[in-house]
Design brief:
By secondary structure, this protein is of the alpha/beta class. About 35% of the residues lie in helices and about 15% in strands. The protein has helices at about 20-30, 45-60, 85, 110-120, 135-140, 170-175, 175-185, 195, 205-210, 215-235, 245-255, 300-310, and strands at about 10-15, 35-40, 70, 125-130, 150-155, 190, 260-265, 280, 295-300. α1 links the parallel β1 (about 10-15) and β2 (about 35-40). α1 packs across α12. The longest helix has 20 residues, at about 215-235.
């Protein structure tokens, strides 16, 4: 039996985003996750929209008590790049959600994360499903807290090709300098890249199972997939959308879902054509560079969807429409 004392303490740093929204629902729906709070970052939309979306998704789940802290509006260097072309103007286009009555906390995401980690009686896992700017700022600012960070699990990069540019996945392209900070920090890092998340497809069979979820949840989640899937068909010619971000939470609930490989991982920060690309040495071509990350390679997709849908199907929901 999982209790609050054995559940994994998690801070979810995200940019909701349809798949981020499903990750939030999974995190609050599973008793194996102790969600300390949600921090937000620019990415799929402006940080103001990401913060509003996080609050509204938590309200949908009946968990408005979970704190939300707004974070970075731009990367460590340069101007912000947004993914509205995938997720719509709001970052979470589709069914209209009831607006949360909660507000974000008054402190910045990095300060809030530092306080939460300091106050935790156990090391905290940082899960990043957007540009990893907030986590990098925390790592740079609070080296004293490194021993209290259990690991960083991030959705980003790829062992193969990209999606925002031919070789760069969106999150890594949006702030490669931040990912470089994380990879060089010495803190345990696990990379959940496109090569893995493209195995997490919301096929018609999966979407039909979403429609069967209790109360209003099926309508909301299935409709999210309708909008998200439309973007993937139009932009990348995918027949079904890959639901990237919940993979990072699912593996904390059931580690056997993913097969990992230790590897040296770097991110390109200066390439004219490859900025934001992740360089993953799966074959130890650089023996002088020891592995600094665990890289997700294979997903048991059937069990993944069983876990995701079972967990979020347990939520006690609030009316979702305006």
């Amino acid at each position: 039996m999982t209790t609050s004392a054995t559940a994994t303490p998690v801070i979810l740093d995200c940019d909701p985003g349809h798949d981020d929204a499903v990750a939030i629902l999974l995190a609050v729906g599973s008793p194996r996750i102790d969600l300390l709070g949600v921090t937000t970052v620019f990415g799929n939309c402006a940080v103001e929209n990401a913060t509003r979306n996080a609050l509204d998704v938590l309200a949908l789940a009946g968990r408005e008590e979970v704190p939300v802290a707004a974070g970075a509006a731009e990367p460590l260097q340069g101007a912000a790049v947004l993914g509205n072309y995938v997720h719509g103007a709001s970052g979470l286009d589709g069914p209209a959600l009831r607006r949360s009555t909660a507000s974000p906390v008054s402190t910045d995401a990095v300060a809030w994360m530092a306080d939460a980690i300091t106050e935790s009686d156990r090391p905290v896992t940082l899960v990043a499903t957007g540009p990893i700017t907030n986590v990098a700022r925390l790592i740079n600012a609070r080296r004293d807290l490194h021993p209290k960070i259990a690991e960083v699990v991030f959705m980003g990069g790829s062992t193969e090709r990209g999606n925002h540019t031919p070789y760069a996945e969106f999150n890594t392209y949006a702030d490669p300098e931040a990912l470089d900070v994380v990879l060089r920090s010495g803190i345990r890092a696990r990379m959940v890249g496109l090569n893995l998340t493209h195995q997490a497809l919301a096929t018609p069979t999966v979407v039909e199972r979403m429609w069967q979820l209790p109360r209003d949840l099926g309508e909301v989640v299935a409709s999210w997939m309708g909008f998200f899937g439309g973007s993937y068909r139009k932009i990348w010619n995918f027949s079904s959308p890959p639901v990237h971000d919940p993979c990072t939470i699912a593996v904390l609930i059931d580690p056997s879902l993913i097969v990992w490989q230790h590897a040296f991982v770097a991110v390109e920060t200066v390439g004219e054509f490859t900025r934001g690309a992740t360089v993953v040495d799966l074959d130890q071509r650089w023996p002088q560079r020891p592995a600094n990350a665990e890289v997700a390679m294979r997903l048991d997709a059937d069990r993944y969807w069983d876990l995701v849908l079972a967990a979020i199907g347990q939520l006690v929901l609030q009316p979702h429409l305006w």
